[in-house]
């Protein structure tokens, strides 16, 4: 289980990105984090794995308080937190296989990875993951030859080969077309269900969040203003999160599209 306790992030400018955040995410739950730009969504995700240092508060992953770990212990703890980035963060000149295997850096070390000396079990797992996301035939392609959707799938494989307990997903569909966005969201949710993984997905697209996840958390000005199921996102709630807009049209569109979207079974915590 992931637990955030009174998490605060204040920048040197005095801007408070997060204000006393309390949140629990059970094993196996996929949570969508929504809110306007500047609400603190990306900051929250990065405070969890300490790519951004919290100003105060606690972050717990199971029995480990991440906010108290020194550099070496933090590196080991990050093995259990897979990160999927908006801009993919692939090494363009490396092959698909090499990019996926880079997710094992926390286990094999820099020099072995530089020499491409990965254990055979890691190579076998990389092939299995590529097959699962439909890209086995591209294992030897360079990353710069891939489309946006293909790159995101490689990013997902790289995160999963860490054997994480938690996925932190930052705007996975921001650069993708609508069809590919649905495919990526469906894939993430299916993989989490298959592996019993918890996930926090920072996403701007409210419709996608409503279609694919069982829990939505809304941030505004660094505070949680909504925490509930996707069907509870009424026009009033969306106005509270984002401000005035014709939310009825958005909700109607989601209801129409959900009929076509295959629901992803949730894993009980």
Automatic annotation (TrEMBL):
The keyword Nucleotide-binding applies. Residues 2-246 form the ABC transporter domain. GO terms for molecular function: ABC-type phosphonate transporter activity; ATP binding; ATP hydrolysis activity. It comes from Thioclava dalianensis. InterPro entries: AAA+_ATPase, ABC_transporter-like_ATP-bd, ABC_transporter-like_CS, ABC_transpr_PhnC, MetN_ABC_transporter-like, P-loop_NTPase. GO terms for cellular component: membrane. Keywords: ATP-binding, Cell membrane, Membrane, Nucleotide-binding, Translocase, Transport. The keyword rRNA processing does not apply. NCBIfam families: ABC_phnC (TIGR02315). Pfam families: ABC_tran (PF00005). SMART domains: AAA (SM00382). This is Phosphonate ABC transporter ATP-binding protein.
